[in-house]
Write a structure and sequence with these properties.
Length: 371
């Protein structure tokens, strides 16, 4: 088990990690998430003794990394896949690490087979692709058959087959009772791999909970409803009925309604009573990416300015009418998700210029966009 208590690291006036406390328990794949600059890499370096904490401490199975006897047998880590001597062959690199840790030579060939690079074991690592370097780094982490494993962006540079292999490997290691901590920016992959999450922002702990619990706590639940009729009459009639029943209704750019405050069966009954046939009635299932973005939006250190040409590509915001005898629906946020129109309506899913000439015309009409 990994345990951090009040972990703090300062570099001059900058505080990279600030009073961070958490536990990484065995038997789980724990995802370590946070924006760039949030302190993830610094935290992992402190776990394996590469950086000394300014305050607080972190232990592995009750001991600091530097006090572990033959640490390679207890902890395996992949923090930088390219931190290799380019002139060494892959097998030579693993053999050197094995000899320093008293690991039998046969284990070198075993892990080469586990990560699938046995055929290039005698090639020099300077010719390795990023994905091959990742596999060699994972092999190095597995070399001592450790009970605690740390991986920083382990799927970086891997093809889809390699990503699936890493995902299954992480789960297998956790199922064997090992402690597995994985840092990644790929939310879709973390949703499939991690069953527990530690999320930090600006060096501070934001969340420490199960993956599904995290999604539930940081997502807005709603129902998407779309009337079968092509005109606005059915949609407005449905919106009025739902609002009168106590629901909050938002008209989305693709013509659907976003409804909160009413369960799906009640929405179906109200549509039936209003004489409106439904083309769609579905619960919104939030993704890990959506929940993560909602939680960390105030912790971003690096943000882009808005592209001044954005109006060429984004749909115009729709004005939301007052539903009859009901409160006004909230405005559509420009930063929200935009779904394509249903088949048969003839519209493009995004307001993209249909031809280079149309794009040139738009730039001519708005000189600011052509700069």
């Amino acid at each position: 088990m990994i345990e951090a208590v009040g972990l703090t690291k300062r570099f001059g006036a900058k505080t990279a990690v600030d009073q961070l406390s958490f536990q990484v328990r065995p038997g789980h794949v724990t995802g370590f998430l946070g924006p760039n600059g949030s302190g993830k890499s610094t935290t992992m370096r402190m776990i394996v003794g590469l950086d000394r904490p300014t305050a607080g401490h972190v232990t592995i199975n009750g001991l600091p990394f530097r006090e572990l006897p033959n640490a390679q047998r207890h902890v395996g880590a992949l923090l930088d896949a390219k931190a290799l001597h380019g002139g060494r062959r892959a097998r030579t690199h693993l053999l050197a690490v094995a000899q320093l840790s008293g690991i039998p030579e046969k284990r070198v060939d075993e892990v080469l087979g586990v990560v699938g690079i046995q055929d290039v074991a005698r090639q020099r690592t300077k010719g390795f692709s990023l994905g091959m370097g990742q596999r060699l780094g994972i092999a190095t982490a597995l070399l001592g058959d450790p009970q605690v494993l740390l991986f920083d962006e382990p799927v970086n540079g891997l093809d889809p087959e390699g990503i699936l292999w890493v995902r299954n490997l992480m789960k297998q290691l956790a199922a064997e009772g090992r402690t597995v901590l994985v840092s990644s920016h790929l939310m879709s992959e973390m949703a499939l791999t991690a069953d527990h999450l530690i999320v930090i922002g600006r060096g501070r702990l934001l969340a420490d909970m199960g993956t599904q619990e995290f999604i539930t706590h940081n997502s807005a639940g709603f129902a998407r409803v779309r009337a079968a009729g092509s005109g606005p009459e059915d949609r407005d009639a449905l919106g009025t009925a739902l609002t009168k029943a106590g629901g909050r209704v938002l008209k989305e750019p693709d013509g659907a309604l976003r409804v909160t405050g009413l369960e799906l069966p009640a929405i179906s009954d109200l549509a039936h009573e209003a004489g409106v046939r439904l083309w769609e009635l579905s619960p919104h299932r939030a993704s890990l990416e959506e929940a993560y973005m909602r939680m960390t939006q105030s912790s971003l250190e690096y943000t882009s300015t808005e592209d001044p040409r954005a109006e060429l590509w984004e749909p115009e915001p729709l004005s939301v009418p007052e539903w009859e005898d009901g409160p006004a629906a909230p405005e559509v946020p420009r930063t929200g998700f935009y779904a394509p129109p249903p088949p048969g309506e003839g519209g493009q899913p995004f307001l993209m210029p249909s031809s280079p000439g149309e794009l040139a015309g738009a730039a001519k009409n708005n000189p600011e966009d052509s700069r």
